[in-house]
Amino acid sequence: MSRPEHLAPPEIFYNEQEARKYTHNSRIIDIQMQMSERAVELLLLPEDKPCYLLDVGCGSGLSGGVLDEQGHFWVGMDISSAMLDIALEREVEGDVLLTDMGQGCPFRAGTFDGAISVSALQWLCNADKSSHKPVQRLYKFFSTLYACLSRSARAVFQFYPENSEQMELVTAQAMKAGFYGGVVVDFPNSTKAKKFFLVLMTGGSMPLPKGLGTEEDSKGVSYISKREHAKKARGKPLKKSREWILEKKERRRRQMKDVRADSKYTGRKRSGRF
Question: Which of 87, 161, 176, 189 could form a cystine bridge with 167, CB 3.0-4.6 A?
């Protein structure tokens, strides 16, 4: 099976038909959200404090929805206009920007408290045009990302390296741009569950987190179980509940967006007898 980045450039591959899968295919949605939640976990953000985050390759806004649930504010960037159209259709809470990550991050210095990315970074390793040189595009991206992050921030990229050479290429350009860090591998012995996360730090070298499903992960608790336990511990309301809807509406009001007034019907489930 061919890798998507070998079939067409991302702005062409992620056309309207492909973008629709990210709102209708429950398996894709669940996988994207799980990887997004793991990426946020690896950011090691302060507890109970909203942060301003960058979502690189934000697509239809699924990862942004995870950031919303955890009370953060975000800006997304993506090269696919079809994916961003879906994001706008879904009325995501973050601001989205149509841009090529290989041309850099067009933001002021020190803007963001962290950055995440799901399934996007490997696209920079391809030369889709004669003017594209992967080494230069990777360095341009990482150097401008480093500049727009605060000096205590982290950036976490879930990506699909094609081989060890590609992983070395990506990591080398990130280190050249000023980052510290490395690759964390979850479930390294599983063909289907294996996931690669590039964890980058701006504030100096620190030990990398342990990958899930490794020998060091002696408790053997699944990531989903940890995530659900963490949500309950933080006292977050269940998604789509009345409390969750009221919190979401209040966040949108703080962002100066038009929001319908609350009423006794807010969050009430329909009976289905229509």
Answer: 161
